[in-house]
Amino acid sequence: MVLVWFRRDLRALDHTALKAALDSGQPVVACFIATPEQWREHHMAPMQADLIARRLACLNEELESLNIPFLYKEVPSFSDCTDVISGWAETLEATSVMANIHYEVNERELDT
Fold it and tell me: Which CATH code of 2.60.40.10, 3.40.930.10, 3.30.300.20, 3.40.50.620 fits the domain covering 2-103?
């Protein structure tokens, strides 16, 4: 089983990590972790948070049409995400976790 972690790119179509997971031939589960407290600390505009929420609803529909389950959780900060992903991966007995690359400096630290 492959766990695909959606972060900034909230599209099922043309999503590199999702395509790689599907190409693996293994079952796929998708997930997203929201960090609204951290978003506020980083001065994310309420309009952007609303856009993310609306896009997640669309993503869920897209994934449903592909028979891909979608997990969602809210945590206080970005640093909490790794524990959530690790927990989901263990519970699902995932053989791998895939995500698109972050290109911003602070976000790249999450990938290492």
Answer: 3.40.50.620
